[in-house]
Amino acid sequence: MPFLPERKSLLIRPVLIIILAAAFIFGFADIFIPLNFERLHIFLFNMTAGGFVILHYTDGGREPAPRHFAYLLLSVLYAVLAFMHWYVPAAAVSVPLWAIVERARVRRFSFFPWSFFSGRISVSRKFHEASLLCLSLAFVFSTAVLLNNEYFHWFHYEKLTLDVFFLGFSFPVSLITMSVMFHFIDEQKTVFFAFIANALFWTINLGVIIFFVFIIYQVFAGEVAVASVLFLAVMTLFVFFLRHGRALQQKHFLVSGMTFLLFTAVTGLLYVPVKSMYGGSPLASGLLLKAHSYISLYGWNLSGLFVILRWNDFPMRLNSRALILFHWAVILMAPLGKFFHHAVPFLSGAYMVLLYLFFFARHER
Fold it and tell me: Which of 23, 151, 155, 177 could form an S-S bond across to 45 if both were Cys, CB 3.0 to 4.6 Å?
């Protein structure tokens, strides 16, 4: 299984640190340059770094393959082209990206996801396959929306924009993290255990799909209802993992990640009443919205990537609790950089220190 334990693989660690750090810094770039860097901010983290990790985790092996590096380079190119609004080249680049993901998915699983409907397949494997399928579909739908809005104009919805659909690249990272969580759960061969695990799989996956549909059609009551169901599903998964997850060093990071995820649910539900209460105050509603974004991206998603990135190196020579507390401090302070600009260099430096400490922690022999 992956990831990066060999000396020959040390080169990819600085590359991933640069990509993850660039994503974080681009989140603040609009403060200093009057451009919308949101696409670079999201794409580099979820599509580039997240997609690379998912592909390598899927293919296994200690060394990244040439197709993994091809994905890495093409995804950076796609992010830059989408940021520059060069949509025809971006659509062209999305084709080989989709092909690379589909090739990995079909080789590891099958063209049609039959395993989703099988009671004999582990839920960890189902979440893994769903992660790849979601990454593949994210390229298809994002490119279709891009071409529709700029050239064809077949469908007209206010929320049918690339800026909404690029959030779909976050879901594959969430699903692969849930796959890893179930990998560390001691699956009990009971009907009740299987029912709960599969119910969580279907609730989370269908819930997110329905949630996106409600966003596009702007059905606010539906958004709130589905968000509440997803919150209950995530809470159930959290309790499930706490009770049945094996007592390993990885569990500390995954529990921290799930706590981040619960925080995102709370901040998401609080956003509308806070915005109404404070009359659209940028410091109140804006700070809450940025907290929601950063906790989701650099809290929950990054926790899952941490575990996969150092898969073969656990247990590691580091104080897990101290590093997790440092992680929380950095991410909770990060939204302040959008309003207190002098804090941006400090926050960016602290984030890079966090990446360095985790990526280069030594394996406990």
Answer: 23
